[in-house]
Give the backbone structure.
Amino acid sequence: MCVIQLLVDKDTLTNALASSHDTHLLRIDSREDEMRSRVRQWLTTVVDDVHEREELRRNRSRVVEINNLVDHLRDDVDNVELMTHD
């Protein structure tokens, strides 16, 4: 009987449909905002992780380069010492 009364009045039906539509759009907008927020957070985390890994890679590469230089200089010092003792 409640449904029959709802269908009798055109204005009531129109208002009910409009309200239902607005509620539906609000839920869609809220879900979209939530998804955007999560994607932004995920993207920020991924970009930060990539930067951190790149920084670590550069630092390790630099340490290897410095170690190679130190080894080379030690070899040179050893060679000079050998030459002076001969």
Observations:
- Helices lie at 2-8, 10-85.
- The chain is about 95% helix and 0% strand.
